[in-house]
Amino acid sequence: MTDEDLVGRAVVGDSDAYATLVERYYGSCARIARRMLRDDADAQDVVQSTFLRAQRALAQFDRGRVFRVWLFAILVNQCRTASTSRRRRERRFSDDDMALRSAADGRPAGAIDESHVVAAAVDSLEPLLREAFVLKYVEELEYSEMAVITGAGVSALKMRVKRACEALRPKLEAIYHE
Amino acid sequence: MSDSADDSERPFVRAAAALRGAPADHSAEIFALQQRIRAESQTHALGVVELSTRRPLARHPWWLGIAAAVVAFAIGIGVGRGSDRTARAGNSAANGQNDRAIAFAFVAPGAHNVSLVGDFNGWDAHATPLERADGRTTWSVAVRLPPGRHVYAFVIDGVTWMADPQGPLAPEQWFGQRNSVIVIPEDRRS
Q1: Contact across the interface for A18 and B33, Cβ inside 8 Å
Q2: Which residues of B touch A8 (CB under 8 A)?
Q3: C-alpha distances in angstroms, B120 versus A98, A176, B142, B178?
Q4: Do A59 and B36 touch (CB under 8 A)?
Q5: How far apart are CA B138 and CA A102, in angstroms?
Q6: CB-closest option in B11, B106, B160 to A9
Q7: A71 partner at 20 to 30 Å CA-CA among A99, B57, B62, B162?
Q8: What's residue A145's pLDDT?
């Protein structure tokens, strides 16, 4: 069943249809929130509140829109709000974070798998660059969709992705020995 | 991603693939969230049970005569007298004397229009439109049906076909779609 079909049913109160949408997009939302917030617990809270907010707002959902993009827009706003509210208590991750994580895991840095190393590199980006990189490369969205989600213009988003890539390139080349 | 991954992009594409990597197990979180969503929906639905006369009629057929009379009274009509608002939906073979007035209600907060389709109106989505019963989210219509078994569904905004969430499903499937069923007994008084 397509998203459009499920949304049509969810809008008129079919909770099973909405539960299917939750299952379909929970993973993507968790991935985006985790990268934007850099904290698993905060990410989980935001994803849950995003789906509940979206359900309550379904009556206002414009059927001409793409559900996934609409949902991600709510998610990104939730992430930004959560990030702002916790900024004072947030501990800044540094380049040493990877070592700290490996110490916590009881594993030497060399034993950390690729996804952990790459995640640490992406996490070191400025928030807006990180957001743009994740939406473009990890979630493989078009710039037009990213513009709807973030509220930024396509040109600005292209610039953010470019800057993110420039910042990441030396770290990734070191990881991949390219 | 539509852009081709040339050599300069390769590390980013590879990094993105690593981040997508083995999908994390969110099954427990998803299950908890789905339970909460269903619970909130149930709470919402409870507010409309009394507006929907279909539910007691379907599950307790002996209520039919009383409930039908109440519905007919509430909308200002008399059963068997004919009405502008209560259309007879049975087939032409019956004389209509045993028809019963049945109210169908459906909660559709985001809908622009809702219609009733069934074997009694040729599954015509234009034949039996519902009206907003409370001016907001609950749609309803009263139809006169002959005794017997009737299969029906609701069509929302002309495109979304849904069984009655308050009523039993008919066992048969049409193109993979389950519909609802209502059984109207013969009137023992006649």
Answers
A1: no
A2: 156-157, 159-160
A3: 68, 68, 13, 17
A4: no
A5: 57
A6: B160
A7: B162
A8: 94
What is the spatial distance between Cα A135 and Cα B166, in angstroms, rounded to a whole number? 41
Q: Do A55 and B34 touch (CB under 8 A)?
A: no
Task: Pick the residue from chain A with its C-alpha nearest to B5.
Answer: A137
Q: How far, in Å, CA of A80 to CA of A89, rounded?
A: 15
The pTM of the full predicted model, rounded to 2 decimals, is: 0.57
The token duo for A88 is: 């004072």
Name the DSSP letter for residue B22: S
Q: Name the phi and psi angles at A108, rounded to 5.
A: -70, 155
pLDDT by 10s per residue, chain B, length 190: 444 557 788 889 888 988 887 667 888 888 888 877 776 665 444 322 322 333 333 333 333 333 333 333 333 333 333 333 445 554 433 456 777 778 788 877 778 888 999 999 998 999 999 888 666 677 888 888 888 888 888 888 888 888 887 667 777 666 667 788 888 877 654 4
Residue B187 — φ and ψ, nearest 5°? Answer: -75, 115
Q: What is the CA radius of gyration of chain A?
A: 18
- The dihedral formed by the CA atoms of B13, B16, B18 and B22, expressed in degrees to the nearest 10: -130
Q: Chain B partners of A63 at a C-beta cutoff of 8 Å? A: 157
- Measured in residues, chain B has a length of 190
Cα–Cα distance list, B142 to A27, B48, B159 (Å): 45, 16, 22
For residue A16, give both structure tokens: 């099973």
pLDDT range class, residue A173, cuts 50, 70, 90 = confident
* Residue A152 backbone phi and psi in degrees, to 5: -95, 160
Burial class (CB in 10 A: 0-12, 13-18, 19+), B171: exposed
pLDDT tens profile A110-127: 445 777 888 889 999 999
Say yes or no to pLDDT of A178 above 80. Answer: no
Task: Tell me the residue length of chain A.
Answer: 178
Tokens 């045993």, residue located: B98
Q: Could you tell me which chain B residue has the CA closest to the CA of A177?
A: B11
